[in-house]
Write the structure tokens for this entry.
Amino acid sequence: MTIKQYRLIYLENGLKVCLYCNQSVDKDLQLDHLFSWSRFLVNGFWNLYPVCSSCKSKKSDKIPIITKSIENRIMKHIELCMQINDKGQAMILNDLNVLYQRRFKSSPRKIPKDRMIEEIVEYIRSLSNNLLDTVPGYEFQN
């Protein structure tokens, strides 16, 4: 999937609140890799979030610290993405299948939505902690 496609899906479905500062981004919506492309080559919806240009610039390719507020915003974003019923739904379901096959070695179809969201957020938190251990001093917290 491309970032352009996800940007369009997010715009069409009203997903335009900055992950980091929680402000609505009506103009110049940008997407940011939660885990930067330079460290983690994944364009899945669970790694691409709407952000404002100011936060995107501040974050750059730093590794986010997953605070409780960021975790809650991630959960809300994932939940809203999973409710999309247009052409974006196939892209998001494909991303879920890829993530679950690689990470959990199972199919997401057999898992309740709430548990699936919790597992994805736990994976994100774990990934953040592992990356921060590998590259200390390169963390981002808004």
